[in-house]
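thread: overnight batch results

M.L. [08:02]
morning all. the overnight job finished for the chain we discussed friday. pasting input first so we're all looking at the same thing
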Amino acid sequence: MHRLAIIALSLAAFAHAQEPRTIPLWEGRAPGAFGDQDADQPTLTFYSAIGNQPSRTAVIIAPGGGYGGLAMNHEVRQVANWFNAMGINAFVLKYRLGPRYHHPIELGDAQRALRLVRARAAEFQIDPHRLGMMGFSAGGHLTATAATHFDDGNPEVADPVDHAGSRPDFVILAYPVISFQPAITHAGSVKNLLGDQPSAQQIDELSNELHVTSQTPPAFLFHTSTDATVPVANSLRFYEALKQAGVPVELHVFEVGPHGVGLALQDALLGQWPQLLREWLRHRGLLAK
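M.L. [08:03]
and the structure it wrote out:
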């Protein structure tokens, strides 16, 4: 059977195996919230791994949408089910969006998600040191920001969730916005996240290629050369920064393909990237044996 057909059948078989469960990032109103509507309430939706031999690995998925929306189907549900079929727990992050919310609210939501899953690792039956984050497009920017702006937690505060660190153990970036430098960025993401007149300091702070260190987590990146929405230079610059810092990184650039393809199940060429990711996860010891 064709490899893409196998992936599609796997997703269909596992999509309804267990109902996902939505968890608020904070009890009560989230810090900085302007109200109590759905858009004001960041959440995680838990998709449990399938099978009798879970890997004890988990991935938090941040969908794209230019920081103004969330692509919740092809960049979230399908991907969560794909991870589940490999024995990986998946958590879909619904983070707050611009122009209603600006930085650092979105980063705070991502950091809280990482802390919450890590703090409740026993409940989710995962290893707190096998927690990664994946992002598509602007969700890739949020993921890269979390990978370059993190802390070890604060044991002095009352909330036990905030005792946990916010560094992802690995990151997966699909056609990501990495840089906010005008020559290569996605202008809509910058405007939604920072408003109409961001300062030069804000632009540099959120150009993640400028903040890579030896402590930045290992990364897998996928992009296409013909992406007309987010230039491939974003992934190339992050790759070079990671290599310079000695951080393990793997980058796949496909010659042709549009932006926002998700798993690319209908494309025989681009549809190879999920298998490449699977082998990267296997090589890093993140799949069940």
